Amino acid sequence: MKNFNFLTKSKYFVVLILIVISSFFGFYHNILAAVMQSSTYKIQQDSVNLGGVDSSSSTYKLSDNLGEVATGDSNSATYYMHAGYWQMNESYISISSPSDLAMTSMGGLSGGSSEGTMSWVVTTDNTAGYNMSVASSTAPAMQSTLDSLADYTPAGSDPDYNFTNASNSSSFGFSPEGTETLPRYKDNGSSCNTGSLETTGRCWDGFSTTPKIVAGSTSSNHPSGATVTLRLRAESGANHIQTSGVYSVIITATAVTL
Questions:
Q1: Sheet containing strand 130-136, strands side by side
Q2: Cα(124)–Cα(122) distance, rounded to whole angstroms?
Q3: Which residue of 138, 175, 182, 228 has the fewest CB atoms within a 10 Å radius of its CB?
Q4: What is the mean pLDDT of residues 98-124?
Q5: Is residue 72 part of a domain?
Q6: Pairing relationship of beta strands 101-107 and 212-217 according to DSSP bridges
Q7: What is the sign of the dihedral through the CA atoms of 217, 223, 224 and 225?
Q8: Which residues contact 163 (CB under 8 A, 6 or more apart)?
Q9: DSSP H or E stretch at residue 19
Q10: Cα gap 88→54, rounded to integer Å
């Protein structure tokens, strides 16, 4: 799959995760303009010009002003430019599309576990930042034609620092990783939703058909963007019999400007 890179308010894509369980188990400048802000607000663009009015109907909306020249869109293989005050009212966001993930097989009679990771790169020039959320297409998320793994459920309101699965059950969950991981998934070395650490393989949560925000920022990260990684784990307890088969889950990741 190719990276999506369009000028829209949000981007999303769908990925497929499979696991087999065996029976053995831009820069711009406006003249006489200033960007104003305080602790409670920020005006992203302003301009001193002549006239201007908004017009709209049920099928269109038009914003215009006088005093600017050479406005419009222009682009090449290496850049895309919005010229003009109104043009800059639309922010840019993109999200990459990783390949489908095939996790290693695990035992269905004696128990076992399997882990894998997949990553997205989110890039935005929006000065207010973005949020990225993930959601599963089904509940429970990980299913085969005959059986399923329970969605991981933390013991409390915060994610679990350690992935904990009872010996008589099976479960499937995720842990976000990256510099722009949401504070909910950061830790202090022993607990989640506290501290500033982003310890690998810690702070586990479960998927839902309702999107869960896992990463984001409060400022632009253009042009380099930020990598958001999900560590995925499936586990079956030693006293649990998991039906053999191919298990899969479809995860939708969505990035939205704020």
A1: 101-107, 10-22, 245-257, 130-136, 212-217
A2: 7
A3: 138
A4: 94
A5: no
A6: unpaired
A7: positive
A8: 152, 173, 175, 201, 204, 233, 235
A9: strand 10-22
A10: 16
| CA angle (210, 229, 248) in 5-degree steps | 55
Q: What global pTM score does this model have?
A: 0.73
Domain count along the chain: 1
Task: Give CA separation, 168 vs 19, 134, 179, 256, in Å.
Answer: 20, 28, 36, 39
Sign of CA dihedral 87, 91, 96, 97: negative
Instruction: Determine the pLDDT at residue 57.
Output: 82
DSSP 25: -
Residue 82 domain-assigned (yes or no): no
Residue 100 falls inside a structural domain? yes
| Chain segment 164-216, per-residue pLDDT in tens | 999 999 999 999 999 999 999 999 999 999 999 999 999 999 999 999 999 99
Q: What is the pLDDT of residues 34-54, one digit of tens each?
A: 566 777 766 666 666 666 677
User: Is the separation of the CB atoms in 164 and 201 below 8 Å?
Assistant: no
Give the SS3 label for residue 89: helix
Residue whose tokens read 């006088």: 66
Please indicate, yes or no, if residue 52 is contained in any of the structural domains.
no
The domain of 228 spans 10-25+93-257
